[in-house]
Design goal:
Chain lengths: 101, 227, 497
């Protein structure tokens, strides 16, 4: 049975609205390569490691967790899982700061 | 009586006017609403016979309402082919005093028109009705003829009372049914005749002169002279 | 409206003319001709079932769309709002630091925050007025981020993978530029997921709405098809058709019952008219013929004026008889039309019975029939007093007419909580069982009644009065004789008094 025009419209309207939402008015970067985030590199990993060691040395009672995290972080960075390692080192830092001198 | 007949049908009007004149009345006739209203408003009549369906833009009920609006209380008998009770009620509410449906017997019309004349003249409350040697006491509810007491049932009393109030006039069976029994239909049997004959047994038979006369094809009349 | 009901006129049919020629005729009610449904789009838009279906579909789709939008706003929208709030809070904090300690403090704070960014989603960039990088973790200032206080979403590279960042620019009073943002890749993925899911859901809802609409439409039409099929059949002439009830007692069933009642009533009225037409053809022809014959006979054979006068008087009496029959017929028609119901009121039945008994008592006595009345002193009844009086009078009249000499006619009345019963019983020849059903037809006269005067309308009138009062007339064998029971129900608000 031939569907009347109205029912077609019923389906089309929400569909187009949805598609409109999906296409966000965002200015896409015109450059060829998007800018790089510099805190995802092995160098930053080493930087954090130094910072952790320094803070451990200064702190009175460093929690056990910190040492585990920094060891694991260092290992991950060496193995190439940079972001994972950086995250563990950051956690270690936060733990140290929270316990605080 | 001076009677105004407002009726547009030539045959019916002719018939009625002739009959009324023969009965000894003075009759005026109008065959449309405008003339009828004019005549009724400008001259005095003892009764008006008014047809409902009239040409000329003014129908019977409108004439009636206008007359009553002018405080003209002339007795009016409405004549109409519209027989339904609602129409009857409408006619009486508009100010009519009686309602007769077509076709009608002339005797009925005559009897009712003459009865209308009674309405105009009420001389205050009566306590006694007297016709010849027949006396009816309304207060004590007693009937005497030539000095002798007559025992009547309550309904027989009312029947006699109605006849006496209309003494000398024709009283039709329909009028008796309406007036004495409050019965508004035609019973198709001669119930009234039986009641009247019983009344006659008590009121006329023991006495030399019969007062209750039968009017052929019409009804009854209370008077000494036979019809 | 006291005339015979004007009925739908079909070609060739003449309805019996009413005796009020001067009254304006009301427009005849025409049975709507059910045209076969035309399969054009125009009809489709006029179709009620289509409208219902469209309303259903639109409501469903609109509700679903509203729900979807709400869901999207509260989830994906929330995610965006959280990100923006975090960035603002960040900016607030950083500006305080800058106010406290100037540039060095700002740089330190940025590095601190980066170091403590466990969620690994913060993006900072501090540049000098020349757009040279001073601090932060973005390698360069993105060229497209030009306006402050505007939201930008753009890709960034993270350890070789492209990610999405949401950024806002803040300009410091000394000409330095600060860029604060968050990695929203995960959130963007979530948002896309959600949007897709909701869109697909809407598509499914659209399909369901269409299917549902079609279903609603067919349900609607199926329910109405019954009524319209019956109406079509009736319009085509099959008057015995009635609308079928589904048995559920719902609004459609009530409608069907009302329509059926209306059809029954129309059927009765049409039967009444048919009866009258037949009766006029058969039963009234006789007295009319008789009157005519007498007049013709008188014209040919009367020699004296007295003979002529006698003939004329007899003819007049015959015509009066015919007029009386017509008036009785009119009365029955008026009662059946139901217009008198508006004049119903409460009245006492007891004096009415007394009046009727007293009126016919004399006639009964004359015929050596005794009329016995048994009724309570007060009988509250509801209806048209005059009509009830006439109905009872008709019954008593019949009873007295058909009673043998020495017989007894009993007139009884009983008051029940739900109505009033009036019973008239005679000891006459009675009505044979086969005739009892037809006794209330107009002009019906049983064999035993052929010799008695009357047109056969008395019981028809009583029946009409009974029906008008929504009561009933029952005729039973009194062995011997007839027992007629007239029942008048109490009004619905009897309790209210």
């Amino acid at each position: 049975m031939k569907l009347p025009a109205h029912l077609y419209a019923l389906v089309a309207v929400p569909l187009s609205v949805g598609l409109g939402i999906a296409v966000m008015p965002s200015p896409v970067a015109g450059q060829a390569m998007p800018p790089q985030v510099t805190t995802d590199t092995p160098q930053y990993c080493l930087q954090l490691l130094d910072q952790v060691s320094e803070e451990v040395r200064v702190s009175a009672h460093p929690p056990q967790e910190v040492s585990n995290l920094s060891t694991e972080g260092q290992r991950m960075c060496d193995q190439g899982q940079t972001r994972g390692g950086i995250m563990r080192l950051r956690r270690a830092l936060v733990l140290l700061r929270n316990t605080g001198p | 009586m001076r009677i105004l007949v407002v009726e547009d049908d030539k045959d019916v009007a002719g018939f009625v006017v002739r009959g009324l004149k023969e009965a000894g009345h003075v009759v005026e006739h109008a065959d449309n609403g405008r003339d009828g209203l004019f005549l009724a408003a400008s001259e005095t009549f003892d009764a008006v016979i008014l047809d409902r369906m009239l040409p000329g833009g003014i129908d019977g009920l409108k004439i009636l309402e206008t007359l009553r609006g002018q405080k003209n209380h002339v007795p009016v008998l409405i004549l109409s082919a519209l027989a339904e009770v609602d129409e009857r009620v409408k006619g009486l509410k508009a100010g009519g005093d009686d309602y007769l449906t077509k076709p009608f017997a002339f005797a009925e019309l005559l009897a009712r028109v003459e009865a209308l004349s009674l309405r105009g003249k009420s001389e205050g409350p009566l306590t006694k009705l007297v016709v010849e040697d027949l006396e009816l006491d309304l207060l004590s509810r007693q009937v005497k003829r030539a000095g002798q007491k007559i025992d009547l049932q309550p309904r027989e009393f009312r029947l006699l009372e109605y006849l006496m109030r209309h003494a000398g006039q024709v009283v039709t069976r329909t009028m008796l049914l309406e007036g004495v029994w409050d019965y508004h239909f035609d019973p198709q049997t001669n119930v009234i005749d039986v009641h009247v004959s019983r009344l006659r047994q008590k009121v006329d038979k023991p006495f030399p002169t019969p007062l209750i006369q039968t009017v052929r094809n019409a009804g009854y009349m209370l008077r000494a002279e036979p019809v | 409206m006291g005339r015979v009901l004007p009925l739908p006129l079909r070609e060739g049919e003449n309805v019996a003319a009413t005796p009020s020629p001067a009254a304006t005729p009301s427009s005849p009610t025409t049975v709507p001709s059910a045209a076969p449904p035309r399969r054009s789009t125009l009809f489709l838009f006029r179709s009620a079932s289509f409208r219902f279906a469209v309303v259903y579909a639109v409501l469903l789709a609109a509700s679903a769309a509203a729900l979807a939008m709400f869901l999207w706003w509260s989830t994906a929208g929330l995610l965006d709002r959280q990100t923006e709030a975090a960035i603002h809070a960040d900016a607030q904090g950083l500006s305080e630091r800058w106010a406290e300690g100037g540039l060095p403090a700002l740089v330190l704070t940025i590095e601190d925050r980066l170091a403590g960014n466990v969620d690994d989603d913060a993006i900072y960039l501090l540049t000098d007025p020349m757009m040279r990088r001073i601090a932060g973790n973005l390698e360069r200032w993105p060229a497209s981020v030009r306006q402050p206080a505007a939201w930008y979403e753009m890709p960034v590279r993270r350890a070789g993978i492209t990610s999405l960042a949401r950024l806002q620019r803040y300009d410091l009073p000394n000409g330095f530029h600060l860029l604060i943002g968050r990695d929203v890749q995960v959130r963007a993925q979530l948002r896309t997921l959600l949007t897709d899911a909701l869109l697909w859901a809407l598509v499914i809802v659209g399909a369901m709405a269409t299917a549902g609409a079609l279903l609603v439409r067919s349900l609607f039409r199926r329910t109405l098809a019954n009524v319209s099929a019956t109406a079509t059949a009736i319009a085509a002439g099959d008057f015995a058709q009635r609308v079928k009830l589904s048995g559920r007692g719902d609004e459609f069933d009530q409608l069907a019952e009302t329509i059926n009642d209306m059809l029954d009533r129309i059927g009765r009225l049409m039967d009444g008219v048919r009866q009258v037409s037949n009766a006029i053809a058969h039963d009234l022809r006789t007295p009319i013929t008789r009157a005519r014959t007498r007049l013709e006979d008188a014209a040919l054979h009367a020699h004296t004026p007295d003979d002529l006068r006698a003939a004329i008087e007899r003819a007049t009496a015959d015509l009066d008889g015919i007029v009386a029959v017509f008036q009785a017929l009119m009365r029955i028609a008026e009662i059946e039309a139901g217009s008198r119901r508006s004049a119903f009121c409460r009245f006492d039945l007891a004096p009415l019975l007394g009046d009727v008994a007293e009126l016919y008592g004399a006639v009964a006595e004359d015929r050596q029939v005794s009329l016995v009345v048994a009724a309570p002193a007060q009988i509250p009844a509801y209806g048209d007093r005059d009509l009830v009086q006439q109905a009872i009078a008709n019954l008593v009249d019949n009873a007295v007419k058909f009673s043998p000499a020495g017989g007894v006619v009993r007139l009884r009345a009983m008051a029940h909580p739900d109505g009033v019963e009036i019973v008239v019983a005679d000891q006459g020849p009675g009505i044979p069982a086969g005739d009892r059903a037809r006794a209330t037809e107009r002009f019906f006269r049983g064999e035993a009644a052929r010799s008695t005067p009357g047109a056969g309308l008395g019981l028809a009138l009583v029946q009409a009065v009974a029906l008008l009062h929504q009561g009933s007339l029952r005729l039973e064998d009194a062995e011997p004789g007839v027992q007629a029971t007239l029942t008048l129900p109490a009004p619905d608000d009897a309790a209210a008094g």
